Input
Amino acid sequence: MWRIHLEIGYATIYGEQYLNWSERFNKVLSNLLRAFPLFVLSLLFACSSAVYSQDEDDEIETEIDWAGRFTHVVDIRTEALANYLRNSRNSFDNLILARINTRSPAENKSSKYEVLWYRKGDPVGLRRLGGLSFRAPQKIALHVIHANQPAGDDDVKAAANVCLRLYLELYGKGMAPSAIVVPRQSFNSFVQRMNQLNFYSAEEPEPNQPVRSSIVLAVESEPPALRQLLFYSGQRF
Output
């Protein structure tokens, strides 16, 4: 006499040598059916936990804590103007309009700052509507918004130029932007445009490593997922 020991899930089956294969199969099937509901419940619990964890991660990664991170936000909204000046001898038919407004996330109040017109990335017009009312020290975000998605090359070029202009204005007042937030769809195009303007991409240096650059910009995507540090270089590469 010898004994067969078979385990399936939570079921344990013992059989004797004299049992024929039909009887053994019936015993295995019977115990398997008793153990199957426990297996299904465990599987459903594991799947629900995974979905819940994924939902938690998505919630964390899809929002920017504007009020918690910044004291002021400068919104830069670009919009393509088709046939703005029809039959223009200077080829000003297609322009990019950039509206710049400032706001405080905590108070949710917005103020108009200026409007610029761009042609192929070059500024061709400016209308000042107000001033930068905030003073140092401040935590400022430059927030790029495109009226149309996906944004065209001229939209990205205009946004990059506005960000550099605002950096210089803030620097003259003893401030600098803490971050430049751009739409995720145009993140790579924006970084490439900044590379063309002598800002090279690099990893964040170690705390004890000196940074030999007069300007350092942090570019982030909205929704949050991508981040790139840009260091200014006086020479093209």
